[in-house]
């Protein structure tokens, strides 16, 4: 097939490489504009741009799609069989939906209609889901509401983090996308409408999503910790300073301390949560300090009896 590929982050790279390896022609690659990265603020090309250039593919990075006459002329001139969308991060305008005969095909990181939106992998882990997966779908004018094409289910382990799941789903999704193109070309795929009544939303993450609420159970907090890696992470405050929690695990023993109370058992630092549950705090970073194991933190920071995290 003749394709146009739209993607930006590392999650999309395996799919681009897979469709090229399968022999498809990628006539054009769209990616978001290059942005400053890291503390240095150095502007770096997106992972998809880097991959595309390594394969000598033509890349464009438009700021806007909807009213971009030059881009529209380019895409309509290519007359692709399909446009692939993988974590592109832009709303696809109607004129673009109307161009290819097989439509705009999106690889989405969940088992639709569960977790429609910008952060499906993070929210699946944060919600404590025991399974997720990838879905290929034909994009329509709604938010991840188009007809589904193929799905693959993946279990989520009790300690799986979002970065680990990203890597696994990116690899599986690449294979599924190639299979979807094969089925479309052969005419042996039946689109399935989503049941809107079963839909859940996975909105873009904000920094505030990482703030811990100790009125929740230890398992709920741990799930959010696993889901919100590497950003926004999870944090609370101690004596008016931000306290980032880099490693934790739920305790199997009940506690009588009120939620949010810090307490020490032997050399272990714990915090009480809802329903008499507790979490071991294994690695911490107090505002203005370096990250350190709990044992080292306790040696340098005297915890008072009944002290609360806010």
UniProtKB/TrEMBL annotation:
Q: Which family does it belong to?
A: Belongs to the Fmt family.
Q: Which UniProt keywords apply?
A: Protein biosynthesis, Transferase
Q: What is this protein called?
A: Methionyl-tRNA formyltransferase
In the UniProt record, the gene name given for this protein reads fmt
Q: Which NCBIfam families does the protein's record reference?
A: fmt (TIGR00460)
Return the EC number.
Answer: 2.1.2.9
- This chain's source organism reads Terriglobus saanensis (strain ATCC BAA-1853 / DSM 23119 / SP1PR4)
Q: Which residues form the Formyl transferase C-terminal domain?
A: 205-301
The Gene Ontology CC terms held by the record are: cytosol
Which parts of the sequence belong to the Formyl transferase N-terminal domain?
2-177
What is the enzyme's class at the highest EC level?
transferase
Domain of life per record: Bacteria
* Biological function: Attaches a formyl group to the free amino group of methionyl-tRNA(fMet). The formyl group appears to play a dual role in the initiator identity of N-formylmethionyl-tRNA by promoting its recognition by IF2 and preventing the misappropriation of this tRNA by the elongation apparatus.
From which lineage does this chain's organism come? Bacteria, Pseudomonadati, Acidobacteriota, Terriglobia, Terriglobales
> Which SUPFAM superfamilies is this protein grouped with?
FMT C-terminal domain-like, Formyltransferase
Task: Describe the reaction catalysed, as an equation.
Answer: L-methionyl-tRNA(fMet) + (6R)-10-formyltetrahydrofolate = N-formyl-L-methionyl-tRNA(fMet) + (6S)-5,6,7,8-tetrahydrofolate + H(+)
GO terms assigned for molecular function? methionyl-tRNA formyltransferase activity
